[in-house]
Amino acid sequence: MALLNFRRKTDDAHRPDHRMHDFLQDFSIEVMPRTAEKVEDFRAILPERTRVYIAHIDGTPIEEMVATAKRLAADGFQVMPHFPARIIKDEATLTDWIARYQGEANVSQGLILAGGVPDAVGEFDSSMQLLETGLFDKAGFTHLHIAGHPEGNKDIDPKGGTVNVDSALKWKSAFRERTNAEMAIVTQFAFEAEPIIKWANAVQAAGVGLPIHIGIAGPAKLQTLIKFAVACGVGPSLRVLQKRAMDVTKLVLPYEPDDVVSALAAHKAANPGFPITRVHLFPLGGIRTGAEWALSRGNLSPAAASL
Length: 307
Prior knowledge:
The protein is an alpha/beta fold. The chain contains 13 helices and ten strands. It has one domain: Alpha-Beta Barrel (TIM Barrel).
């Protein structure tokens, strides 16, 4: 199975795939305040009620995060900001963030994660500590999503392997019994279907009953993809990208995730109990480019089309 799709587009390169159509229904997408500013109208590129995650990168003022959330909520989208434990100073700060999101943008969903920085700025080091405060339940959050890592996470397991990651998932799965919010696992992006399937099945077999929203890198230039893969700590897939980057003929062609998504969709269609239930799109080549890919492959229409 090809790991990446570098075929040139032709008239029949993307024939209708009803399994992909089904698999891409209710896909979600991730933005940052600075990338969201470049989109004139999200309703022109995203289906109604799309869940939009807002990534909180270290150094981004909370005011910019809340303003982005307010804009997206006003357009009718489900807004899910990140709550990165290691950049939240203390419980008072977390309380303030929740209050701002709710008061200004009517947010009731959050992705709770450790955050991509090596050292905590305050008293929180893990997503579990954030969940244990009880502040999200107190605020009436309806959805609490957590991070998943199909290729492991060196911040959590610095010596390799997945012992700490697996233990954390089991803890969070048990936490589901203590919250009224719906929970799901949202993963880092990866590029090969077979290892993703193996990981998802192992998570399910370990007794973690949470649905999985699989992270997929949207269309992008290979150079861009490598840059983000390095920054995000992507595992074995990175070696594949670096090898392909040595081939100049492939370097100039855009990456599209059709192969990996098609393989996952086919597996889901053949195995309805498979825990991956949705696609979460990282639009590394641009929000509009990523959204257009998802709309075309999912046979979907943007919200503006229904106005």
